[in-house]
Structures are given as structure tokens and as C-alpha cells.
Amino acid sequence: MTARVPLLAVDGGGTKCLAVFADIEGRMLASGKAGSCNYQGTGREAAALELTRAIREAKRRLAASATGCKPPASEAEPASLEQKKTVNIAEDGPLHVTCAVFGVAGLDTEHDRQVIEEMVREALAHTQVTADRIVVENDGIAALLGATGGAPGILIIAGTGSIVYGINAQGQSARAGGWGHRVGDEGSGYWIGKQAIRAALRGFDGRGGHTALTGKLLLHLGLRNEEELFNWVYSAEYSVDKTAELARLVTEAEREGDETARLILETAADELLLGARSVLNKLGMAAAPFTVILQGGVLQNNPLVRNRLADGFRSVSPQAQIDEAKKEPIDGVIAQGVQLLRREY
């Protein structure tokens, strides 16, 4: 007999991949975490492996708890979402979910969709998970739809990368940013970390003033001087994730009064606001009431960036309501799955 649960929700971000099995109310039954599954940053095979690892770990934990798993009345009937009897799940056995929702970073073009949908199919096959319905969205769209229930809203994400999404009252959507670390991601953790490196090297040249960022960067990376910092940037050790981690050093330096760090963070907020204003203009939402959701490590953990962005947003769209709750992207993906379950099953 194949065990069943209502929902599999996956947030596949640029830093980590989180898979969650949940009940029809969105309550978490088990979760599993792995590394980045943004194939644009890690490569297709590595991203597919992390996606599989996250689902497998969540399934392993679900099997250990065997909580909330409902069997079908018979193998010929669909599973009822109200059945009470629980069944055991074998870690290496089949599992069926009513709905599987994937919010995956890097889904920006039709080519991306083909690649990521293939990754999803592989991950489900390798973990022996089947689903009545599979939904694959960009992680930002999934989070926005889940958080707003399809109502008008703007989602600003600034984590490892950055992007802005919006949906207006007519159901039209638009985005700005999200073009990746090579040509975009302004205001993101990676962008902030890169600006810190640039500031240190500019100071070394005499093209910029002294900044406490230099010492913090060298200490964090275990380097002796700016020349070694330069070598690190062009070595195999350099990565998007490691550079994004440097953003916290900028936060530390700003709190200690470093002017260069403050300017970097203010510019990060201004870049995010620029993207948000672009989406507002595309959708004609500036004068309308709607919810603004701020997500990602930069906006959750850096008050200067968050507050400057929120204040700027209110100045251009006075009726906007800033959602001050600290929500994780997975919450939006789970919410979207719950909405689909209630609407269609």
C-alpha cells in the first residue's frame, strides 16, 4: 500500500533547498534541507542532486515520525484528506502526495522551465514520490502567490540574489531584477559582499577612503593583505555563496560606524526600491492599496536596508501596507499548496 500525505512544498533557493511535507492545513509534518538548487549558479547536475537530497531527507524524517499519513480507502480510490487512520512509511518505499509545489530559483525563461521541470521529475523519481498535481514556479512567484492568495501585492526578495515581483488587481504580473550575479542581483547579499571587496581594493589603491571592511574581510577569509584578497577573488575558492556571506561583515561595520559600509547598505536599499518602482509602474499600482512583502536574509537581518526600503516605498505608494512579519519563502510555497488543495480537492 502506498502511503499518502496531502502536500509536498519545496523552496529551492540560491542558498539552500528546503523540502516540507505538510497536512491540508499547512502544518509541517517533516522537513529536509540541502544546498543550493539554483542550477544557474551550481550547474544542472549539482542542483538536481541537492533537490533530491532535500526531498529524501524530508521523506526519511516523515518515515521516522509516520505522522499525518493517510492511506486510501482502496488502491482504486483517491486518498481522502479527512481519513483518520495512519500508516507507516518506508524510507525507501513509495509515497504519494496530492499536490507538490516547487518554488525554484533560476526559473526565469522558458528554457529554465524545461531544465527545472526535468530536475523535479528526476528528484521525485529518485525519491519514489508521486503526485496528483505538480506545480513548478519561480521561487519568487510561488512565495508571492502563497503570501497574498492571489490578491494584489509586491514581493521584494534580497537574499543571496535579489528580485522584485508584483501582481495587480487584474491578475497581471511583472518582475524586475533577478538577472543573476554576473549582471544583476543589485541589493542582494552577493552584491553587498562584492561591494565590500571593491571598497577594500579601492582603499588599497588610494581611490577610496580607509574602511574597517578591509580588516574584517581579511580576518574572515584568513588572508594577510589586499593582494591575497585579489587572488582569492580569482581563485577556485571564490563563489557566489561565500561572497554573499560577506554581507554580514558590512552589517557589522555599519553598526560600528563605518561610513563606507553605511553607503553600501543605503545603496543596496535604493537599488531594491528602484526595482520595486519599476514593477509598480509596469502594473499601474502606485496609487492602489496592496501588500508589500519583504523576504530574504538581507531584508530580514539588516534593519538599515529594510527600514530605508520600507520608508522609500511608502513615499512612492502611500496606500501600500508593509507586511512586517518575518516570513520565510517556504511559508509562501506551503500557503500556495494549501490554497490549491482547498480549491481543487
TrEMBL record:
<keyword id="KW-0808">Transferase</keyword>
<dbReference type="InterPro" id="IPR043129">
    <property type="entry name" value="ATPase_NBD"/>
</dbReference>
<dbReference type="InterPro" id="IPR002731">
    <property type="entry name" value="ATPase_BadF"/>
</dbReference>
<protein>
    <submittedName>
        <fullName>N-acetylmuramic acid/N-acetylglucosamine kinase</fullName>
    </submittedName>
</protein>
<dbReference type="GO" id="GO:0016301">
    <property type="term" value="F:kinase activity"/>
</dbReference>
<feature type="domain" description="ATPase BadF/BadG/BcrA/BcrD type">
    <location>
        <begin position="10"/>
        <end position="333"/>
    </location>
</feature>
<keyword id="KW-0418">Kinase</keyword>
<dbReference type="InterPro" id="IPR052519">
    <property type="entry name" value="Euk-type_GlcNAc_Kinase"/>
</dbReference>
<dbReference type="Pfam" id="PF01869">
    <property type="entry name" value="BcrAD_BadFG"/>
</dbReference>
